[in-house]
Design a protein that fits this description.
The chain is of the alpha/beta class. It has a single domain, classed as phage-related protein like fold (Alpha-Beta Complex). A 6-stranded mixed beta sheet has the order 5-12-9-6-8-7. α1 crosses α3.
Length: 301
């Protein structure tokens, strides 16, 4: 247990311990950061170029294949779209009375730091979900690929039904990313809700799968294993009846203005204020590297 000493001159040590606890806690909790490349930035407004990834065999009447001797080469431009995103600030703080630090039965300081870190991490993950799915940007929502389960679209049952075809559904999302975006799909990640994790576990058990085969990759950051070559990540930021398949480190970039950090202010013999902050923006550079799976549950619970 860490001894949070309030003697004169110990604030830098205490601040260092607190910051370490904040970052270690957050490192185990972030889910969606695994999907993004992370680059530092010093700008409030970050501009990137979204490339048109469509491919063809060449212009009409002048294919890339079979050029006659001495003929002109076929030409094709690559369209680029200029997009700008602004930094979003995330933060939470707590003011801990001096007496609570000294006399409470539980480690109030450590628990308060962990809970305020959870505030920021959850807010960041929710923002990353919104960014990757285009939830807050209607124009981006039209570019994100989607795949609907059940009904006449897939012919499969929901993931909580005996007629589920979870592996085939994941492979359909993988196929969309591979065919429409020309991406290597050997390292895809699928984010699922806790309810869908339950359905997946039951479905695999009904199929006779061994639990240790699914659990061998469980470590931190919501990892629950691999299915059909796709890494499964559980997150409470995923809404009911949705799942998200992405090409990691390619689909989007986090522009990090202020990495997760903390600050403490000591008001001697009165209280200690702990503040946690992070500032970033999300550039969805490759929407075709993303596929939203819709309608995974028969009941949104």
């Amino acid at each position: 247990m860490v001894d949070y000493n309030l003697q004169v001159g110990t604030t830098p040590i205490r601040a260092e311990v607190i910051d370490s606890l904040v970052k270690q806690t957050a490192a185990r909790m972030y889910k969606f950061k695994q999907a993004c490349a992370i680059v530092p930035t010093s700008a409030w407004k970050n501009t990137f170029f979204r490339e048109d990834l469509s491919t063809s065999s060449g212009p009409t009447g002048n294919l890339f294949k079979g050029l006659p001797r001495g003929a002109s080469f076929p030409q094709r431009d690559t369209p680029w779209e200029t997009v700008s995103v602004r930094i979003v600030k995330f933060g939470s703080e707590v003011n801990i009375p001096w007496e609570d630090i000294l006399s409470n039965d539980i480690n109030v300081m450590a628990r308060s730091i962990i809970r305020r870190t959870e505030d920021v991490v959850k807010a960041v993950d929710d923002h990353l979900w919104d960014s990757l799915t285009g939830t807050t940007l209607s124009e981006l929502n039209l570019r994100i690929q989607s795949y609907a389960i059940s009904g006449t679209v897939s012919g499969h049952g929901y993931w909580d039904e005996s007629s589920a075809a979870i592996t085939d559904d994941l492979m359909s999302a993988s196929r969309l990313i591979a065919v429409n975006g020309n991406y290597d799909v050997n390292d895809l990640i699928c984010f699922v809700s806790p309810r869908d994790k339950q359905s997946m576990m039951k479905w695999l058990a009904d199929k006779g799968a061994q639990w240790n085969a699914l659990a061998q990759d469980i470590t931190v950051n919501g990892g629950i294993g691999r299915l059909a070559g796709i890494t499964l990540i559980e997150s409470v930021s995923v809404p009911a009846s949705y799942a998200l398949v992405v090409k990691p480190k390619t689909c989007a970039t986090i522009n990090e203005l202020v990495s997760l950090r903390s600050n403490t202010t000591d008001d001697p013999f009165k209280s200690v204020r702990v503040r946690v902050v992070e500032e970033l923006s999300v550039s969805v550079t490759d929407p075709l590297a993303i596929c939203v799976i819709q309608g995974t549950q028969s009941v949104n619970a």
